[in-house]
Design goal:
Shape: rod-shaped
Bound molecules: adenosine-5'-diphosphate, magnesium ion
Strand order of the largest sheet: 2-1-5-4-3
Number of strands: 12
Length: 463
């Protein structure tokens, strides 16, 4: 089967046919076991009343009486001795009946051919126009014993009803096939649209509009698909932005290196100027190399397989060491450093976490005016280990705060460029904390200072 459409149509029709067959068999069984005896009883009662009426009115001409009854919708066989009988009403298709039966009925017994008549499990037996498919009752008239075999003439009694049911069945079958053919379109159409949308997405067209009003599974699928398209679009934008950012970050130091080396070659420069230009070239290349390192680090952190090299260690020690390592820079800026670091063991990748403290501390040092204070506080509870890094620096504007963890984001581009910053530090920090299932939050007020709070899960066992 080629299409879902065809598949649904064929399956539904198959199900319809199957249920028709099953219900046909079921209703036949119902007829055979419950309705047939009842039907036999009914016919017996009719036969008896035909017979009694004739017995009580012997003056009736049998010929006209039985023809009359036959016209009312009965088929009859009146017999006095085997092979000597007459038929009334519509003719029987099969007139076979054993002599034994005829004789036993003449003797006064009843014959219940309808309930005994079997043609397999099917109700069609009811319609079988055969002499054995009758009810036989004894009949006495003018001192003579007869046997009267009766069955209703199905054609006369149920003729219209049969046509009515046949029309009903055929019409409902045809209509259901028609409706299945039409309604399946309604089910399949959104899937076709979804497939087209997928193709568009694969070609990089993100402006996909899908009907999402339906509240069923397909409606939900369309909704999720639109969401996916949206986030793919964002991802694509981010990627483009990232590439253009990287190129820009590489372009500007390269331009300045080019410019200064050109100047160094051409003009007559004093020894002093040469030294200054060379120093600029050196610092720009250092900046580029730093940028390269940071990008490599981000790339390796982005890789899903970047598994942490976890071990137990004392963070308080690590932070103290970092501050010691950076001492020359905060001393140079005449910053006060306050450390409140009780021992706290955590399980983590110590090399990566060291990068976190270095990034945050260098930021604090960089963005705090001389004379300011940096305080680092550590608190550990059963569940987590919390480090606050607070400075009395320039602070971050509320409008910048949501973006500081974005790659290449710098609150003050012009100023930061001179300071040799890339805007990658906090992105790396955020990523590392994420990988440790921790959190990082920043609280800041412009002109007053900034606090970064890192929360890392505590190890189950504490030393
Ligand atoms: N302690 C801080 N005080 C004020 N601003 C900060 C502080 N830390 C970060 N920022 C702001 O967040 C931006 C992003 O920081 P970061 O990712 O470390 O980049 P970089 O330090 O390379 O500029 C910085 O450019 C700065 O504007
Ligand atoms: Mg930084």
């Amino acid at each position: 089967m080629k299409s879902l459409y065809l598949r649904i149509v064929i399956t539904t029709i198959f199900v319809m046919i199957l249920s028709f067959i099953i219900s046909f068999v079921g209703s036949n069984l119902y007829y055979q076991h419950l309705l047939k005896p009842y039907n036999d009883q009914k016919i017996t009662a009719m036969a008896k009343s035909i017979s009694t009426f004739y017995g009580q009115n012997p003056e009736l001409d049998p010929e006209s009486y039985f023809s009359h009854v036959g016209e009312l919708g009965y088929q009859m066989y009146l017999v006095q001795a085997p092979e000597q009988g007459s038929f009334y009403g519509a003719p029987f298709r099969e007139t076979e009946l054993s002599d034994e039966v005829v004789q036993s009925v003449i003797r006064g017994e009843e014959y219940h051919g309808v309930s005994k008549f079997t043609t397999g499990p099917f109700v069609t037996g009811f319609f079988d126009n055969a002499l054995i498919n009758t009810v036989g009752v004894p009949l006495q008239a003018a001192g003579q014993d007869y046997a009267l075999f009766v069955r209703p003439n199905v054609g006369v009694l149920f003729g219209e009803l049969r046509i009515f049911f046949a029309v009903l069945v055929v019409l409902s079958v045809l209509l259901s096939i028609l409706f299945v053919v039409i309604s399946t379109r309604y089910i399949v159409d959104p899937i076709v649209k979804l497939t087209e949308a997928t193709k568009m997405l694969a070609q990089g067209k993100y402006g996909i509009r899908l009907e999402v009003k339906r509240r069923d599974e397909i409606g939900k699928l369309a909704g999720t698909f639109m969401q996916m398209a949206k986030s793919l679009q964002q991802l694509d934008q981010m990627r483009q932005e990232f590439v253009s950012n990287v190129s820009h970050e590489i372009q500007s130091p390269l331009a300045s290196i080019q410019g200064f080396s050109h100047t160094l070659q051409s003009a007559n420069l004093t020894e002093e100027q040469k030294k200054r230009y060379l120093a600029i070239i050196e610092s720009e290349s250092r900046r580029m190399s730093q940028l390269g390192k940071q990008l490599l680090m981000l790339a390796s952190l982005d890789k899903e397989e970047s598994i942490l090299d976890k071990r137990m260690f004392d963070v308080s020690d690590q932070i103290r060491q970092v501050m010691f390592m950076l001492e020359w820079s905060w001393r140079e800026k005449e910053l006060a450093v306050e450390l409140d670091l009780p021992p706290a063991c955590i399980a983590g990748d110590d090399k990566l976490l060291q990068q976190v403290w270095i990034n945050l501390a260098t930021n604090s040092i960089k963005y705090t005016e001389p004379g300011g204070t940096i305080s680092i506080r550590l608190r550990q509870t059963e569940a987590e280990c919390r480090v606050d890094i607070e400075d009395t620096g320039i602070g971050i504007a509320e409008s910048d705060l949501p973006y500081i963890f974005n790659r290449f984001y710098r609150a003050d581009r012009a100023r930061d460029r001179k300071e040799g910053s890339s805007g990658l530090g906090l992105a790396i920090t955020h990523k590392i904390v994420d990988l440790h299932h921790g959190r990082i939050e920043a609280v800041s007020e412009l002109g007053k200072g900034t606090t970064f709070r890192i929360t890392l899960p505590s190890p189950l066992t504490k030393h």
